[in-house]
Amino acid sequence: MQRRDKRNYYLDIAQTVAERGTCLRRNYGAIIVNNDEIVSTGYVGAPRGRKNCSDLGTCIRQELNIPRGERYETCRSVHAEANAIISAPRRDMLGATLYLVGLEVADGSIVKNSCCCGMCKRMVINAGIIEVVIRDTEDEYRVINVEEWIENDDSLGTVFGY
User: Fold this and answer.
1) Neighbouring C-beta atoms of residue 96, cutoff 10 Å
2) Across-strand partners of 100?
3) Using the 8-state DSSP alphabet, how is residue 103 labeled?
4) What gap in Å lies between CA 2 and CA 153, rounded to an integer?
5) Which of 73, 8, 12, 69 is nearest to 41 (CA)?
6) pLDDT in tens, 46-90
């Protein structure tokens, strides 16, 4: 019997966390790991005390036909990465890895070309997380060095119209 490699092991856990999500479009699961210990987990869902889209039976982003990657401020939910960061002490995130898996609600497939949104990238940077591992298929993933997000500041193009 061959053991699952460590990165896919953590991605499998993040995928299970994603199943708790309450979005009607895509559910993400995130876990933060440091020194081979899970520090925290997070999934997509409305802020505590507010109704989730799954409870309401509607998604405003779907109703307005907002494309993926745009106008996240209209969403009721807190992203998985943000929820994982909120739940962890910063000292435990310094030098950590965030594992991220997205699932399409319609068919349960893995979201193609996933990545953190601009706001989540900023939170990941400030949390002191050094890499993000994103699942592409059941066995394949990308490893992003967070330093690249700092050096290639994609927010400059948005702010200054580049």
Assistant:
1) 22
2) 30, 134
3) E
4) 41
5) 12
6) 899 999 888 888 888 888 888 877 787 778 889 999 999 999 999
Ramachandran angles phi, psi of 97, nearest 5°: -115, 135
> Pairing relation of β-strands 97-104 and 131-135?
parallel
Task: Look at residues 109, 78, 97 and name the one whose alpha carbon lies nearest to residue 143.
Answer: 97
The DSSP code sequence of 18-71 is HTT---SSEEEEEEEEETTEEEEEEE-BPPTTSPPHHHHT--HHHHTTPPTTS-
81 is catalytic: yes
The one catalytic residue in 81, 104, 131, 148 is: 81
Whole-number pLDDT of residue 40: 98
Give residue limits of the domains in the chain. 6-44+80-160
- Burial (0-12, 13-18, 19+ Cβ within 10 Å), 40: buried
Q: What is the pLDDT of residues 22-51, one digit of tens each?
A: 999 899 999 999 999 999 999 999 899 999
Class of domain 6-44+80-160: alpha beta
